[in-house]
């Protein structure tokens, strides 16, 4: 068994697609119109057949309170592996990304938490 798809709820699919591709570096894999919204996924360019991230509209009434509570408590909605958190932190900060947590070493793991501009906190992480 493998993880095929995971999702992050976004408040604007166009804005999310720009952020997740142009800033974070993912590539669009699937875009299927579904009325006002789309089935819109991105993948890592390093693993184009790997796990897809669905940029899912946050229109369900339960989603916005859920997202608001996670952000208020500083809880990331997703976690992405990077080769070096400090290098990625510097690259993203140069692009204007806002961080809720700067790089933090916790034993063998280093993390940082960024704002995806779509209502979520996202963690980046690497292990030694």
Please give the structural blueprint.
Elements: E1 5-10, H1 13-23, E2 27-34, E3 37-43, E4 52-57, H2 63-72, E5 78-81, H3 85-94, E6 99-106, E7 109-115, E8 121-127
Parallel strand pairs: 1-4, 5-8
Antiparallel strand pairs: 2-3, 3-4, 6-7, 7-8
Q: Please identify the structural class as seen in this structure.
A: alpha/beta
What order do the SSEs take from the amino end to the carboxyl end, as H and E? EHEEEHEHEEE
Count of beta strands: 8
State the distance separating the first and last CA atoms. 26 Å
Strand order of the largest sheet: 1-4-3-2
Low-confidence stretches: none
Q: In angstroms, what is the radius of gyration?
A: 15 Å
Mean residue pLDDT = 97
Shape: globular
Helix proportion: 10-25%
Count of helical regions: 3
Outline the biggest β-sheet. Answer: 4 strands, mixed
Strand content: 35-45%
Could you please describe the fold and organization of this structure?
It is a single chain. The protein is of the alpha/beta class and 128 residues long. 24% of the residues lie in helices and 41% in strands. The chain is built from three helices and eight strands; from the N terminus they run βαβββαβαβββ. The strands form two sheets. It has a four-stranded mixed β-sheet, covered by helices on one side. A four-stranded mixed β-sheet has the order 5-8-7-6. A hairpin with a 5-residue loop joins strand 7 and strand 8. The longest helix is centred in the N-terminal third of the chain and has 11 residues. The two termini are 26 Å apart. The mean pLDDT is 97.
